Amino acid sequence: MTPRHRRFQTRAARPKYGFPRKHLLALTLASIAGSLAFPGSRPAAAQEAGYRFRVPAWEGMTWYKGNTHTHTTESDGDSSPEVVARWYKEHGYDFLVLTDHNAFTDPAWLEHLVDSTFLLIAGEEVTSSFESRPVHVNGLGIPHLVEPRRDSSLVATIQANVDAVREVGGVPHVNHPNFGWAFGAAELLQVERDRLLEIHNGHPTVHNHGGGGTPGMEAVWDVLLTAGKRVYGIAVDDAHHFQGEFAPGRANPGRGWVSVKASALAGEEILRNLEEGLFYASTGVELDDVVVGPTRMEIHIAQRGNFRFTTTFIGAGGRVLATTVTNPAVYELSGAETYVRAKVVDSGGWGAWVQPVFVEVVGMRGG
C-alpha cells in the first residue's frame, strides 16, 4: 500500500537561467566556493543572518504514487494499454501516464479502470533526434498527439519538443539524457521551460550512473541546480516488458516512481505539484514525511523489515553537506547553502531522492 501522510513543505521559485557553455565550469566552481565559505556556521547564526529555507505550507496533503514513463503495444511494449494499466493499479500505484513513442492513448478508452484509487493521465513520449542523438521528451497531460520536431542543432531540437508539449498545455519532462550518450549538462542548461528531468530510468540500456568520463544523472542535476536552474529529478520505469521473465536485462515495471503530494487524486494538481517539486523520487525506499522549517529539514523514512538507512544531504556543486544513519534524518541550515537536497539509501541498495529546497535571504541585521 502507498503511505498516506499529511505534510510536505518545499517550493520552487522561477528565476531566469540558461547559461552559455563557456560559463558552466565557472558557475559550478563559484557555487562550490560559496558553499565552503562558512564552515563553522551554526543554525542560529543562519537564522540571525536572515538565511532560511523557502517554506510554504502544504497541510492536509496526501502522497500519491505514480509512474510517468511506460510503454504498451501502441509502440514498442509487449502488452496492451489495458494490461499495462492493470499492472500498475494492482501493484498499488495511484496514477499512471502511458507514454508510447509518438502515439497517444486516450485515457477515456480505459475509463473502466479509473476509480477513486487509480487515475490515468494522458501522455506521450515525443520521440525525435538530432543527427545520431536521440531526443525524447515526455508530454504529460496532453490533449492529443504531439508531433515530434527537429531543428538546426541538438539544443534547438530539445527545445522545440519541450515547446511542442507546452503549446498544448502539457507538462514536459526530458528523458534519459545518457541513453545513447545523447546530451548532458551543457545542453540542458540552455533549454528553457523544462522543470522535470529523469535522474533514474529503469531501462537496462540507460546509463544512469554515467561512465567513461561522462557524469551520471545525479551529477548533471547538481550542475544544473548549482548554475541556478530550477529543475526537479524524477525516477521512472520506462517499462516495455510485462510478459515473461522479470530480470535485470529486461525493461520491467516497478523500478522507478514518484510520490507526489496533493490534496486530491486529480490530474491537474498532480502535474502542477510535480512541477513545483512537491514529490520525492524512488527506486524502492518510501518516506513517511518530509518536513521543512525555516532552518531545519527532517526526512521521516518508512521502516521496511529490518532494513537500515543512510541519508546524505547534498548542496551546490554536489557537495556532501552531512550524512546520517538516524531516522528521521535531520539537517540544520548553516547559511552557506543555496539549496539542499537529500538521498536516502537502504541496506538493500534501494534509494529515494528528496527534491532540492532552496535557501533565501530575508534580511540582514546591522547597519
Explain this structure:
- With 367 residues, the protein is of the alpha+beta class.
- It has a single domain, classed as Metal-dependent hydrolases (TIM Barrel), CATH 3.20.20.140.
- The protein contains 7 helices and 18 strands.
- The strands form 3 sheets. Strands 1, 2, 3, 4, 10, 11, 14, 15, 17 and 18 form a 10-stranded mixed sheet that branches. The chain has a 5-stranded mixed sheet with strand order 5-6-7-8-9. The chain has a 3-stranded antiparallel sheet with strand order 12-13-16, with no helix packed on it.
- It is globular and about 55 Å long.
- The N and C termini lie far apart (55 Å).
- 47% of the residues are buried.
- Residues 1-41 have low confidence and may be disordered.
